[in-house]
Amino acid sequence: MPELHRPLSPHIQVYRWQITSVLSITHRLTGLWLGVGALALSAWLVMLVDAPAAFRAYVGFFHTPFGIVLLVTWSWALFYHLLNGLRHLFWDLGWGFERARYVATGWTVVVLSLALTIVFWIPRLV
């Protein structure tokens, strides 16, 4: 069989990062992280019904610094995924494909998700 010298597909290192690609990857990762959070919530509910001692230990874990970090990142993932999902809904309606608009809405999603997370957690951590 003759050797073919076809060009290879460009690797991710060839492309310049763009806000749309970063936000898309982040959207997928937050979806995965929310899936892990759903499993943790399910375990919490099962322990609430079946094992009061295990439930107390589980709740105690989420009062540790590591547990709080998990809860904060899950809440940020929820806000980010929700807001970016709304952004995609507007795209489905045909709005927001202009470069200036998708950059602006992308940064709006990032800033609002961080702001909502801070507003949600400040009363609980103070």
What does this structure look like?
It is a single chain. This protein is mainly alpha-helical and 126 residues long. The chain has a single domain (21-125), classed as Fumarate reductase/succinate dehydrogenase, transmembrane subunit (3 helical TM bundles of succinate and fumarate reductases). The chain is built from 4 helices and no strands. Helix 1 packs antiparallel against helix 2 and helix 1 (19-50) crosses helix 3.
Question: Can you give me a brief rundown of this structure?
Answer:
The chain is mostly helical. 77% of the residues lie in helices and 0% in strands.
Cα-to-Cα separation, first versus last residue: 71 Å
- SSE series: HHHH
Low-confidence stretches: none
Beta percentage is under 5%
What sort of overall outline do the alpha carbons produce when their principal axes are compared?
extended
Structural class comes to mainly alpha
Determine the CATH topology: 3 helical TM bundles of succinate and fumarate reductases
Percent helix, as a range, is over 70%
Helices, by number, come to 4
What characterizes the major β-sheet?
A: none
Number of strands: 0
Instruction: Indicate the CATH architecture.
Output: Up-down Bundle
Q: What is the residue-averaged pLDDT?
A: 92
How many structural domains?
Answer: 1
Q: Look at the structure and name the CATH superfamily.
A: Fumarate reductase/succinate dehydrogenase, transmembrane subunit
Q: What value does the Rg take, in angstroms? A: 20 Å
